[in-house]
Amino acid sequence: MSQLPGVTQSPKHARRRENGLRPCCCVCGRPLTAPESIERGMGDSCAEKVQEAGHKRQQMDPEADVFLPIPFGKGIVLKREGQWIIKTNVPHLVVHHSPTGFEFGYAGSGPSDLALNIVEAMLNRFGYHGDRTSCFEGSCFSLAYRLHQPFKVAFIASAPREGSVIAYPVVEAWMLQRMPE
Ligand SMILES: [Zn+2]
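Above: inputs. Below: predicted complex with zinc ion.
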């Protein structure tokens, strides 16, 4: 997980790294200006949308994954309540492998969807623009689709079942290495 061979330092990557300090909205990719939005990593309306979508998921399925409003900058937070309830700070933007929600600690479909949503949110955070691919529910960047299985293997399948926090700089470096110039 800690292997970071030759992290690229091109001007574009340096700029993206700088943007990491002033991230774009991890939901819609728009630049953030208000200090509280920058702190949160999301604009006001997107934060509301994510909360609302979370409530809806809870109403439909009391064991659905729960969104924790903790900025990515503090790490990717993976928590488990009881056996099945997964709590993360990852906005659930797209459903592809797992209509029943996120999971971690093994290499199944719940972990695939968690990985896909992390990679998608990170690309938004970097203000990435690129082709999109249709998913089971919604869509994602084609690049997110290409990266989500390797990301799952590197970070999600191996995460401790009881939960953990994945250090943000490690995720950022992993993403930057795999993004086009
Ligand atoms: Zn937004």
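The mean pLDDT is 91.
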